[in-house]
TrEMBL record:
Keyword Transcription regulation set for record: yes
Keyword Transcription part of the UniProt annotation: yes
Gene3D superfamilies: 1.10.1740.10, Winged helix-like DNA-binding domain superfamily/Winged helix DNA-binding domain (1.10.10.10)
Keyword annotations of the record: DNA-binding, Sigma factor, Transcription, Transcription regulation
Alphabetical list of InterPro entries matching this protein: RNA_pol_sigma-70-like, RNA_pol_sigma-70_dom, RNA_pol_sigma70_r2, RNA_pol_sigma70_r4_t2, RNA_pol_sigma_r2, RNA_pol_sigma_r3/r4-like, WH-like_DNA-bd_sf
Protein name as catalogued: RNA polymerase sigma-70 factor (ECF subfamily)
Signal peptide from the UniProt entry: none
């Protein structure tokens, strides 16, 4: 029987080679693992499944956008867990979670990181967003950067909820292509 690590790594390698079906399966499998991870971590600080689901989406998006950075010679799960951990740290910072709210063995993860990197990344993302059409930009900013619900984003952007979802999906795809194009030049 194949271990989960070997199966996930095989899916990632196929994904990196352009296999869309393998990529979908990989993201679905990782979503299940990430969901359990985030629910466990957030339950310790009194947060709910909705916030865990938001983190799953952020982590899966990061994995999708950064899959080209995965080193095929290394195991996959530590790479995925690093992304998941950083998304959790970002969540705790955004939500102003007190270090007292975080279990003591994890408090260093919240306090030991360089805040300048987050500010620089946010600036870069906002600069990249300027290349998108207004509705796409509005939907991504509202949901992914400002933390609004899809319904709240729909009101802000003056489009339907399904329009918000479509614009986020297409906008993130366009951003990924733009990032890939810029890293190749």
């Amino acid at each position: 029987m194949t271990s989960p690590e070997k199966e996930l790594k095989a899916l990632m390698l196929a994904s990196q080679d352009g296999d869309a079906a393998a990529h979908r399966v990989l993201l679905e499998r990782l979503s299940r693992h990430l969901r359990a991870y985030y629910k466990g971590k957030l339950a310790k600080i009194g947060r709910g499944p909705t916030e865990a689901e938001d983190l799953v989406q952020e982590a899966v998006l990061a994995i999708h956008l950064q899959r080209h950075t995965y080193d095929q010679e290394e195991p996959l799960t530590p790479w995925v867990h690093a992304i998941a951990r950083y998304k959790l740290i970002d969540f705790l910072r955004r939500n102003r979670a007190s270090v007292a709210d975080v279990p003591i063995d994890e408090a260093h993860e919240v306090t030991a990181n360089d805040d300048h990197l987050g500010a620089e990344s946010s600036f870069d993302v906002r600069r990249l967003l300027m290349h998108l059409p207004e509705k796409m930009r509005c939907a991504i900013e509202a949901v992914k950067l400002d933390g609004l619900s899809v319904a709240e984003a729909a009101r802000r952007c003056r489009i339907s909820e399904s329009g918000v979802k479509v614009n986020i999906h297409r906008g993130l795809k366009a951003l990924a292509a733009l990032i890939a194009q810029r890293t190749q030049t």
